[in-house]
Structures are given as structure tokens and as C-alpha cells.
């Protein structure tokens, strides 16, 4: 619970790792053997599952929020509205992916 609270209230982009960080950790795990690789795969799978529940409209968590909103309103959202909200969510995801990858590259070279 403390980790979740820290993630929400003490968010720090430097703590996130993208594809470059995953590559580095994967190469280290490969040198340590099969148990380390399997542990890394399990951790990555769990992280992807948790990340997918973040309430960003392009993700499942966002869809859950939209469904709750529809249940409260007792009528579905207009397709145009849902499409716009999803597009904004995709834009947020793209910006986040670029920022995390840039951060990884900066850590690697500086």
C-alpha cells in the first residue's frame, strides 16, 4: 500500500525504466541464468498487468472508468466523446513512452 501511495504522490520520472532499461536488466539476468530470467519475465508481466489498470482512457483501467461513468449516468457516452477521450489517452501514453525512453538514454550515456 505504501508503494502505491508513493507511486501516486511521489511520482518521479527518473524511477521509471523503458525499453533501454529493460534491455540492460535482461542482459544482466541472462548472465545470472534461468531462474533470474524467469523472475524478470514474471516481474515484467506483473508490471504490464498493473500498468494496464492505470485509468488512462487508452488502457483497460481507462475503459473501467468510462464504464463506471456510464453506469452512474445510466446511459452510454457518445462514440465521438469516447473516441476523443481515448485519443487523448493515447497521446498521453506516447508522450510518456518518449519521456521514459529519453530518460533511459540519458542514464545510459550521462
UniProtKB/TrEMBL annotation:
GO biological process: cell division; proteolysis
InterPro entries in alphabetical order: Pept_M50_Zn, Peptidase_M50
Keywords: Cell cycle, Cell division, Hydrolase, Membrane, Metalloprotease, Protease, Transmembrane, Transmembrane helix, Zinc
Membrane topology designation: Multi-pass membrane protein
Gene Ontology cellular component annotations, sorted alphabetically: membrane
Keyword flag Zinc: yes
Cofactors required: Zn(2+)
Superkingdom of this protein's organism: Bacteria
Family note: Belongs to the peptidase M50B family.
Cell compartments where the protein resides: Membrane
Domain Peptidase M50: start-end pairs: 2-96
Pfam families: Peptidase_M50 (PF02163)
Protein name as catalogued: Intramembrane protease RasP/YluC, implicated in cell division based on FtsL cleavage
UniProt source species: Streptococcus cristatus
Organism phylogeny: Bacteria, Bacillati, Bacillota, Bacilli, Lactobacillales
